[in-house]
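Purpose: get a first structural picture of the assembly so the mutagenesis plan has something to point at.
Setup: two entries, given in the order below. No constraints added.
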Amino acid sequence: MTPSAPAAAAPRPAARRRGRWGTAAPYLFVLPAVLLFAAFKLYPIGWSFLLSLHRTVGGTETFVGADNYARLADDPLFWTALRNTGVILVVQVPLMLALATGLAVALDSTLLRGRPVFRLGFFLPMVTGLVAYGIVFSVLLNEEYGLVNWLFGLVGIDPVPWLTEGLWARISLGLALTWHYTGYNAVILLARLQTIPAELYDAAAVDGAGALNAFRHVTLPGLRPALLLTTVLSTIGTLQLFDEPYVLTGGGPDNATLTIGVYLYQNAFKYFDFGYASAVAYALTVLVGVLGLIQFRLLGEKS
Amino acid sequence: MTDQQSGRQPGRRQVLRGGSALAAAGLGGLGLTGLTTLTGCSGSGDTGAGGSGAAGDPRKGKITVWSWQGPAEQLKALIPEFNKTYPDIQVTVEDIGNPAIWDKITAGLAAGGQGLADVLHIGVDYLPGYVERFPGGLADLAPLGAPAHKDAFASGLWQTVSPDGKRVNALPWEANSAGFYYRADLFEKAGVDVGALQTWDETIEAGKRLKARTGVHLLGIDKPASQPDAANFFQMLLQLQGAFYFDLEGRITLDSPEAVRAMTLIKTMNDAGLVSNLAGGWNALMSSLKRGTAAVLPWPTWFGGIIEEQVPGEAGKWKVRLPPAVRRGGPTAATVNSTHLAIAGSSKQQAAAWSFVEFALTRPASQVRIYRGKGIAPALLKAYDDSVFHEPSAFFSGQRKGEIFLDALKAPGSAVNYTADYARALKLVTDAQSKVLLKGADPAKVLGEAASELARQTGRKNVR
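Result (structure tokens, whole complex):
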């Protein structure tokens, strides 16, 4: 007779399964992520706050308290950057989201053949490298050699100073952003659209609602959470906008496309004024936080 | 929420330039908090070696050199000769491109010398900033033997590389004097004797005749300032008066009478319709050159080589002279910029790097070779003994171009104090110039505002 299997192999009651490491296990599992987060996010965040209270004088950091923040308040270039960023936020983001909503509805329509192809096509710009597409746009929009002006020339339209005149530079930037992000937002909206129950549309049709009314009273309310998400994300993205203006215009001409991100970069890496750049970063953080809260209030679910 | 989820991904990027990688990383948002951080760039000057003493073997090692376009090509061509003398030093020259190189050096210095090349090609506009903001980031060349060459270079340049007379931050390579390249054939058609023009006021009058007779602009400026060098012409007019953005004590002189005078000349030209718009920077300048939209290129010594390269078919139509004076009888010579080779403080091969720098910059034969290749004018005075600087140039209508600029180099010049805040000053100047050229603003007013703003941003005093 063989002895029965050792007790260890027997299933133990749950309460006894917690050994010495039992309670610590979850913490151990999250430890790597926490460590990485602390090293690569928390540390720079804390460090840049310290930096924002300092000024580099003759190669050494001098503590100056809130001086850098006081400088911000009456720095005309900072306000220019803020205004430019605000304009993009107020003009480009709503237009893009309206376009994305229309696109989502179109891509959801059963009348459209080859929907996956279209969905992929509209989403693809999102996966192109930011700098790569920035350069492609700058080549397309080059005043003298660009494809766009060449095509305009064929139909007898004068060349447009896409990147060298303030207003046009802003328009070019808006076009590039719209091309890049509309499809991405449309995909988010589309995902939400597909969760709206068909019964609601049937009920609306029974009540005699046309396509427009159905859109107004069924589609839009249904899209609300996704619209909130895309609005908040686009706001944050816009406030941090850097790559496109950096590659397309460098913030010019005459600061017409200077965004807070580009201004921060100039202060840090052109003027070596890391303290001031950090202050710009913190001002931006506060701004993002405030705007995010407002949007949640306005668009959030009413409890 | 992570970067990757946000509507405008600030996360992973293929970044063109090393420098922007750092910057871009700093712009990686934190989802909802949207926090932008400066990836721990301390800027505290913790830059490793600190450049004390020589590192490594002066006859052996592997070194990397960072430069840009033409100069990089010339340094590459020098390697075989260098290896005859130093067979055990392996040199790699990398063409980083300009202005990309500044971001890349800045990022490297900010990261305590991580990833920097051993030898760095640095313009006079960046050198003081690097030295002041990143102490020890560039090696002190004095212990390596630099002071032996103190008197070998054009006057004023030693002060640029060794402000305190003890520490040597770099060795001078190029010395560029203000120049005035012009299409002699067009001026002839307009009945103007360019050689007789003494002042810029006279030049503007000549420009009006030129425009009326030939339809060609006098010169071009990047009016919206798409590149920082849009202010080159303004800066030249300033330096022809012995003035600059800062005085030798580092005080701000942005709205000095000289500066207002220079900007007023530019406004007068522009109002008379004599200035073509080079919006877009370098590419616009090149296409303007090829299409002949302006008769004068008020660019320094090195630009002659560019003209020959870009429009070889126009040989014999071009001439060069020193620029007219701003005030009658005033100076016509100004050293408008210089470039230098420095050695990274973090380099483990400082001695071998120094061997290369010394070979390239203090040996006349090296400099002559570089001048033949690209028209880069040496700061090394001994190089000018070579016949190449005294030969008539077929392209420039048989003129002895080298001698014209040599005269300018030998003329007494005033030292220029770029300070560590040059980049900020330049930004304000280009903005002010854009307002004058695009919106017709008043020169005295915009320069006054720029000077006040610069004082506020830098804590420097204004001279008024």
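The first strand of chain B starts at residue 61 and ends at 67.
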